[in-house]
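Review this today:
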Amino acid sequence: MSEFAADTVAETAAEVEGTSGFTVSLENFDGPFDLLLGLIAKRQMDVTAVALAAVTDEFVAYVRRLSAEAGAEEGYFSPQALDESSNFILVAATLLDLKAAQLLPSGEVESEEDIAALEARDLLFARLLQYRAFKEIASQVQATFDENSGRHPRQPGTDPQLAGLLPELVWRTSPEDLRAIAEKAFARPAMEPDDVRLEHLHAPVVTVREEMATMTVRLRDTGTLTFSELVRDAESRLVVVVRFLGLLELFRDRDVELRQYSPLGELTVSWAGSDQGETEAAERAAAEWDDELEEHDG
Protein backbone atom coordinates (compact mmCIF):
# COMPACT_ATOMS: atom_id res chain seq x y z
CA MET A 1 0.00 0.00 0.00
CA SER A 2 1.26 3.54 -0.76
CA GLU A 3 2.18 5.88 2.11
CA PHE A 4 -0.76 8.17 1.28
CA ALA A 5 -3.23 5.27 1.37
CA ALA A 6 -1.77 4.01 4.67
CA ASP A 7 -2.14 7.45 6.27
CA THR A 8 -5.74 7.70 5.01
CA VAL A 9 -6.60 4.30 6.49
CA ALA A 10 -5.08 5.20 9.83
CA GLU A 11 -6.84 8.57 10.04
CA THR A 12 -10.34 7.49 8.95
CA ALA A 13 -10.67 4.14 10.80
CA ALA A 14 -13.51 4.64 13.31
CA GLU A 15 -14.15 3.17 16.71
CA VAL A 16 -15.88 -0.16 16.00
CA GLU A 17 -16.43 -1.79 19.39
CA GLY A 18 -20.06 -2.74 19.99
CA THR A 19 -21.44 -1.97 16.52
CA SER A 20 -22.15 -5.67 15.81
CA GLY A 21 -22.87 -8.69 17.99
CA PHE A 22 -20.64 -11.03 15.99
CA THR A 23 -17.43 -12.00 17.75
CA VAL A 24 -14.64 -14.24 16.56
CA SER A 25 -12.23 -16.42 18.48
CA LEU A 26 -9.01 -17.14 16.62
CA GLU A 27 -5.51 -18.15 17.67
CA ASN A 28 -4.21 -14.60 17.26
CA PHE A 29 -7.41 -12.62 17.96
CA ASP A 30 -10.43 -12.92 20.24
CA GLY A 31 -13.07 -10.21 20.16
CA PRO A 32 -15.68 -8.39 18.05
CA PHE A 33 -15.47 -8.85 14.29
CA ASP A 34 -15.75 -5.09 13.76
CA LEU A 35 -12.67 -4.58 15.94
CA LEU A 36 -10.79 -7.07 13.76
CA LEU A 37 -11.75 -5.07 10.66
CA GLY A 38 -10.55 -1.88 12.33
CA LEU A 39 -7.18 -3.40 13.15
CA ILE A 40 -6.77 -4.60 9.57
CA ALA A 41 -7.76 -1.19 8.21
CA LYS A 42 -5.22 0.51 10.49
CA ARG A 43 -2.62 -2.05 9.41
CA GLN A 44 -2.14 -3.11 13.01
CA MET A 45 -2.86 -6.73 12.01
CA ASP A 46 -1.75 -8.52 8.88
CA VAL A 47 -4.72 -9.85 6.93
CA THR A 48 -2.69 -12.89 5.89
CA ALA A 49 -2.61 -13.98 9.55
CA VAL A 50 -6.42 -14.17 9.72
CA ALA A 51 -8.01 -17.57 9.04
CA LEU A 52 -10.98 -16.51 6.92
CA ALA A 53 -12.37 -20.06 6.81
CA ALA A 54 -12.64 -20.13 10.61
CA VAL A 55 -14.24 -16.67 10.60
CA THR A 56 -16.82 -17.88 8.08
CA ASP A 57 -17.70 -20.96 10.14
CA GLU A 58 -18.20 -18.86 13.27
CA PHE A 59 -20.37 -16.39 11.35
CA VAL A 60 -22.64 -19.16 10.03
CA ALA A 61 -23.15 -20.41 13.59
CA TYR A 62 -23.82 -16.82 14.70
CA VAL A 63 -26.61 -16.15 12.14
CA ARG A 64 -28.24 -19.49 12.92
CA ARG A 65 -28.32 -18.56 16.59
CA LEU A 66 -29.80 -15.14 15.72
CA SER A 67 -32.55 -16.74 13.62
CA ALA A 68 -33.38 -19.24 16.35
CA GLU A 69 -33.64 -16.50 18.98
CA ALA A 70 -35.95 -14.51 16.66
CA GLY A 71 -38.29 -17.50 16.31
CA ALA A 72 -37.59 -18.15 12.61
CA GLU A 73 -38.41 -21.57 11.21
CA GLU A 74 -35.61 -24.06 10.71
CA GLY A 75 -33.81 -23.35 7.44
CA TYR A 76 -34.94 -19.68 7.36
CA PHE A 77 -33.11 -16.53 8.46
CA SER A 78 -34.56 -13.68 10.49
CA PRO A 79 -34.45 -10.13 9.01
CA GLN A 80 -31.54 -9.17 11.27
CA ALA A 81 -29.63 -12.29 10.25
CA LEU A 82 -30.20 -11.49 6.56
CA ASP A 83 -28.90 -7.94 7.01
CA GLU A 84 -25.77 -9.09 8.81
CA SER A 85 -25.22 -11.85 6.23
CA SER A 86 -25.28 -9.31 3.39
CA ASN A 87 -22.72 -7.15 5.17
CA PHE A 88 -20.51 -10.11 6.01
CA ILE A 89 -20.47 -11.38 2.40
CA LEU A 90 -19.25 -7.99 1.18
CA VAL A 91 -16.57 -7.73 3.87
CA ALA A 92 -15.44 -11.34 3.48
CA ALA A 93 -15.05 -10.91 -0.29
CA THR A 94 -13.00 -7.76 0.29
CA LEU A 95 -10.78 -9.49 2.87
CA LEU A 96 -10.28 -12.43 0.54
CA ASP A 97 -9.16 -10.18 -2.31
CA LEU A 98 -7.00 -8.19 0.09
CA LYS A 99 -5.36 -11.34 1.41
CA ALA A 100 -4.60 -12.49 -2.13
CA ALA A 101 -3.10 -9.09 -2.96
CA GLN A 102 -0.87 -9.18 0.15
CA LEU A 103 0.72 -12.37 -1.10
CA LEU A 104 2.28 -10.46 -4.01
CA PRO A 105 6.09 -10.27 -3.76
CA SER A 106 7.34 -7.06 -2.21
CA GLY A 107 10.37 -5.05 -3.23
CA GLU A 108 11.17 -2.79 -6.07
CA VAL A 109 8.55 -2.18 -8.71
CA GLU A 110 9.96 -3.33 -11.99
CA SER A 111 6.96 -3.54 -14.34
CA GLU A 112 3.57 -2.02 -15.00
CA GLU A 113 1.94 -5.26 -13.81
CA ASP A 114 3.50 -4.79 -10.35
CA ILE A 115 2.23 -1.20 -10.24
CA ALA A 116 -1.27 -2.36 -11.20
CA ALA A 117 -1.16 -5.04 -8.48
CA LEU A 118 -0.18 -2.50 -5.82
CA GLU A 119 -2.91 -0.12 -6.95
CA ALA A 120 -5.45 -2.95 -6.76
CA ARG A 121 -4.35 -3.65 -3.18
CA ASP A 122 -4.85 0.00 -2.26
CA LEU A 123 -8.32 -0.12 -3.83
CA LEU A 124 -9.20 -3.11 -1.65
CA PHE A 125 -8.30 -1.14 1.47
CA ALA A 126 -10.42 1.72 0.17
CA ARG A 127 -13.37 -0.65 -0.29
CA LEU A 128 -12.99 -1.79 3.31
CA LEU A 129 -13.02 1.81 4.54
CA GLN A 130 -16.02 2.57 2.33
CA TYR A 131 -17.92 -0.30 3.91
CA ARG A 132 -17.13 1.03 7.37
CA ALA A 133 -18.30 4.52 6.38
CA PHE A 134 -21.61 3.27 4.98
CA LYS A 135 -22.20 1.14 8.05
CA GLU A 136 -21.63 4.06 10.42
CA ILE A 137 -23.89 6.34 8.37
CA ALA A 138 -26.60 3.66 8.40
CA SER A 139 -26.31 3.49 12.20
CA GLN A 140 -26.72 7.27 12.46
CA VAL A 141 -29.77 7.24 10.16
CA GLN A 142 -31.32 4.41 12.18
CA ALA A 143 -30.67 6.33 15.40
CA THR A 144 -32.42 9.37 13.92
CA PHE A 145 -35.42 7.23 12.96
CA ASP A 146 -35.57 5.71 16.44
CA GLU A 147 -35.34 9.14 18.06
CA ASN A 148 -38.21 10.55 16.02
CA SER A 149 -40.40 7.45 15.78
CA GLY A 150 -42.68 8.71 18.55
CA ARG A 151 -43.42 12.03 16.90
CA HIS A 152 -46.63 12.59 14.97
CA PRO A 153 -47.86 15.67 13.09
CA ARG A 154 -50.59 17.63 14.81
CA GLN A 155 -53.93 17.81 13.02
CA PRO A 156 -55.27 21.24 13.92
CA GLY A 157 -59.00 21.82 13.94
CA THR A 158 -60.90 24.86 12.76
CA ASP A 159 -59.74 28.12 14.26
CA PRO A 160 -62.29 29.27 16.87
CA GLN A 161 -62.53 32.70 15.24
CA LEU A 162 -63.32 31.16 11.87
CA ALA A 163 -65.66 28.54 13.29
CA GLY A 164 -67.93 31.31 14.59
CA LEU A 165 -68.39 32.68 11.07
CA LEU A 166 -70.20 29.53 9.92
CA PRO A 167 -73.99 29.54 10.40
CA GLU A 168 -75.46 26.77 12.46
CA LEU A 169 -77.13 24.08 10.39
CA VAL A 170 -80.80 23.69 11.24
CA TRP A 171 -82.46 20.60 9.75
CA ARG A 172 -86.17 21.11 9.25
CA THR A 173 -86.99 18.30 6.81
CA SER A 174 -88.68 15.24 8.28
CA PRO A 175 -87.80 11.72 7.15
CA GLU A 176 -91.15 11.43 5.36
CA ASP A 177 -90.54 14.66 3.44
CA LEU A 178 -87.04 13.51 2.51
CA ARG A 179 -88.44 10.22 1.19
CA ALA A 180 -91.04 12.06 -0.91
CA ILE A 181 -88.38 14.35 -2.37
CA ALA A 182 -86.19 11.37 -3.28
CA GLU A 183 -89.08 9.53 -4.93
CA LYS A 184 -89.93 12.58 -7.00
CA ALA A 185 -86.32 13.10 -8.04
CA PHE A 186 -85.73 9.51 -9.09
CA ALA A 187 -89.13 8.79 -10.60
CA ARG A 188 -89.32 8.54 -14.38
CA PRO A 189 -92.37 10.23 -15.85
CA ALA A 190 -94.46 8.10 -18.17
CA MET A 191 -93.94 9.36 -21.69
CA GLU A 192 -95.76 8.24 -24.76
CA PRO A 193 -93.44 7.37 -27.62
CA ASP A 194 -93.57 9.78 -30.52
CA ASP A 195 -95.09 8.49 -33.71
CA VAL A 196 -92.63 8.46 -36.55
CA ARG A 197 -94.46 9.64 -39.62
CA LEU A 198 -93.22 8.72 -43.06
CA GLU A 199 -95.57 10.72 -45.24
CA HIS A 200 -92.90 13.30 -45.95
CA LEU A 201 -90.47 10.63 -47.16
CA HIS A 202 -90.90 9.43 -50.70
CA ALA A 203 -88.75 8.11 -53.50
CA PRO A 204 -89.35 9.02 -57.10
CA VAL A 205 -91.13 6.30 -59.04
CA VAL A 206 -88.71 4.48 -61.34
CA THR A 207 -89.98 1.79 -63.73
CA VAL A 208 -88.00 -0.84 -65.55
CA ARG A 209 -89.96 -0.15 -68.72
CA GLU A 210 -88.96 3.52 -68.81
CA GLU A 211 -85.29 2.81 -68.17
CA MET A 212 -85.26 0.05 -70.79
CA ALA A 213 -86.66 2.51 -73.29
CA THR A 214 -84.00 5.07 -72.37
CA MET A 215 -81.16 2.58 -72.83
CA THR A 216 -82.66 1.23 -76.04
CA VAL A 217 -82.69 4.68 -77.63
CA ARG A 218 -79.09 5.34 -76.66
CA LEU A 219 -77.81 1.98 -77.85
CA ARG A 220 -79.63 2.27 -81.18
CA ASP A 221 -78.01 5.66 -81.75
CA THR A 222 -74.46 4.77 -80.70
CA GLY A 223 -74.29 1.01 -81.17
CA THR A 224 -71.95 0.32 -78.23
CA LEU A 225 -71.67 1.87 -74.76
CA THR A 226 -70.19 0.86 -71.43
CA PHE A 227 -72.45 0.34 -68.46
CA SER A 228 -70.83 3.32 -66.73
CA GLU A 229 -71.87 5.50 -69.68
CA LEU A 230 -75.41 4.13 -69.54
CA VAL A 231 -75.83 5.11 -65.86
CA ARG A 232 -73.78 8.30 -65.90
CA ASP A 233 -76.90 10.50 -65.68
CA ALA A 234 -78.62 8.33 -63.02
CA GLU A 235 -79.99 10.53 -60.23
CA SER A 236 -79.90 7.86 -57.54
CA ARG A 237 -78.72 4.36 -56.79
CA LEU A 238 -82.27 3.12 -57.38
CA VAL A 239 -82.08 4.26 -61.02
CA VAL A 240 -78.77 2.38 -61.44
CA VAL A 241 -80.34 -0.82 -60.08
CA VAL A 242 -83.43 -0.50 -62.30
CA ARG A 243 -81.32 0.10 -65.40
CA PHE A 244 -79.24 -2.97 -64.62
CA LEU A 245 -82.41 -5.06 -64.33
CA GLY A 246 -83.61 -3.68 -67.64
CA LEU A 247 -80.24 -4.49 -69.21
CA LEU A 248 -80.56 -8.10 -68.06
CA GLU A 249 -83.97 -8.34 -69.72
CA LEU A 250 -82.60 -6.94 -72.96
CA PHE A 251 -79.77 -9.46 -72.81
CA ARG A 252 -82.19 -12.33 -72.19
CA ASP A 253 -84.19 -11.29 -75.25
CA ARG A 254 -80.91 -11.07 -77.23
CA ASP A 255 -81.44 -7.39 -77.94
CA VAL A 256 -77.99 -6.57 -76.54
CA GLU A 257 -74.61 -8.29 -76.30
CA LEU A 258 -72.49 -8.03 -73.12
CA ARG A 259 -68.71 -8.29 -73.02
CA GLN A 260 -66.27 -8.11 -70.11
CA TYR A 261 -62.63 -8.37 -71.13
CA SER A 262 -61.19 -8.88 -67.63
CA PRO A 263 -62.49 -10.07 -64.26
CA LEU A 264 -64.35 -7.24 -62.52
CA GLY A 265 -63.58 -5.10 -65.55
CA GLU A 266 -65.78 -2.64 -67.38
CA LEU A 267 -68.99 -4.08 -68.88
CA THR A 268 -69.43 -3.25 -72.58
CA VAL A 269 -72.97 -3.25 -74.04
CA SER A 270 -73.63 -3.51 -77.80
CA TRP A 271 -77.04 -3.25 -79.49
CA ALA A 272 -78.09 -6.42 -81.37
CA GLY A 273 -81.89 -6.02 -81.67
CA SER A 274 -84.22 -4.45 -84.20
CA ASP A 275 -84.05 -0.78 -85.07
CA GLN A 276 -87.72 -0.01 -84.28
CA GLY A 277 -90.13 -0.72 -81.42
CA GLU A 278 -89.81 -3.09 -78.49
CA THR A 279 -90.40 -6.80 -78.42
CA GLU A 280 -93.42 -8.20 -76.63
CA ALA A 281 -91.19 -10.27 -74.38
CA ALA A 282 -89.27 -7.18 -73.25
CA GLU A 283 -92.51 -5.32 -72.50
CA ARG A 284 -93.88 -8.28 -70.54
CA ALA A 285 -90.67 -8.67 -68.51
CA ALA A 286 -90.53 -4.96 -67.77
CA ALA A 287 -94.11 -5.05 -66.53
CA GLU A 288 -93.28 -7.94 -64.19
CA TRP A 289 -90.30 -6.09 -62.72
CA ASP A 290 -92.40 -2.97 -62.20
CA ASP A 291 -95.02 -4.98 -60.31
CA GLU A 292 -92.39 -6.48 -58.02
CA LEU A 293 -90.86 -3.07 -57.29
CA GLU A 294 -94.28 -1.65 -56.41
CA GLU A 295 -94.96 -4.54 -54.03
CA HIS A 296 -91.55 -4.00 -52.37
CA ASP A 297 -92.17 -0.28 -51.93
CA GLY A 298 -95.63 -0.97 -50.54
